[in-house]
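pls read this stuff:
=====
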Amino acid sequence: MCMSSVKVKKLLLAVALGGFLFVYVAFTSPEVEGACSTIVECEAIMNDAGSNISELTDQQAEIDEDLAQVEYDLQNTMARIENLEDQISGLEDDIETLRQNITQIEGDIEQTESEIATNEAFLSELDLEIEELFDIVARRMRFAHRSSQGSSFLAVLGESDSIMDLVRRVRMLNHMANQDAQVVEDLNNLIATQQIIISNLEREKTGLEENRQALDVQNATLASRMEELEDENETLTAERETLDEEQTALNEQRAEVASLIISASDARSIAAAQRRALEQTPAPEVSIGGGSDSSSSGSGSGTITSGGGAFVIPLEHGRVTCEFIGCYFGHTGIDLANGFNTNTRVFAAATGVVTVSGWHNMYGWYVIVSHNIDGSQYTTLYAHLHQRPFVNVGQVVEQGHVLGTKGSTGNSTGPHLHFEIYRGPFNWPHAINPREYIHFPSSW
């Protein structure tokens, strides 16, 4: 699968899931209208979320399949690159060895040429010696010719003073003749030897030059192969980069789909909890007028006071520090505080079901509870808790149940509880003044 197909698939996925994203964001974000106010609406959201989860799971399976193929191709490409790099390394060693051999042969050729030049110079010296010898032999031959005009033996005999003188003269002539013959023979042998040496050196030089030519051809072949390997390596490197980008895109796409699956699951869970809240009958009992002592979970809610309605003060003790009206523009709740400590308990204002328990950039750690009061739905919100809430989505909490402790998380200037009430589902910013349902004394 190429990068373009990944981008196309990613775009199609975004278009296909656009409707679900809108539904889910609208349900969970405090800035837009809430989820379901009737059991039918809750079931519709649950069904839509289930359908989206199924589609997203199929999409995730396709992405996993594509990712597995890309990872296989990537591993195969990297193995090919590694093998190619080994070939290039071996080829570089061969080229280096070949270059060393060429250098050695060039040195041998240079040495052979030097030896040929030396022997040719020596042969030139022999030529001079031969010329000198020829002069000597020629003089002797002229002398012998003059001495041997007529009958050479009779001339020598006639010129001899005695038999001994004759013998001496004959021996001298023979010695000169033999000496000249030996010198000529030695020179001929030396010339022949020198010519053989020069011929051998010429053949050696020719062989070296042929080897050099063969090495040059081999070097050119290796260089051409090296260029091919480098081109192939460049192609594989580009292919690996493309696969890396494709793998990154698929991983990002898979993470997005996984996040959407989680979001759809949360939406379905919250809708189910909301439906359970709507199905809750009869209305929970609340204390009227004085203190309230909830019977649930040891919450220690005996200090909570109420103004005679279904809701009680959600903070263990304190005072109102910022009213719903007149505090600042856009304030959608009432702020309760008692100093800078962060261990004051926050209670559920009425019995209900937790629909949200988590983090929000504005609210910090916060909880939303849905209530069914005499068949009517109400929703309360508890924001800026000190740490992660003590309750989970879908959990049924009774009036006075401890949700957490007041804090200063999110968009907050100090430890306090920001408390909101809505008629019907959570529908920011259409909250109502909590004083319509709860009496807040100057302090409690």
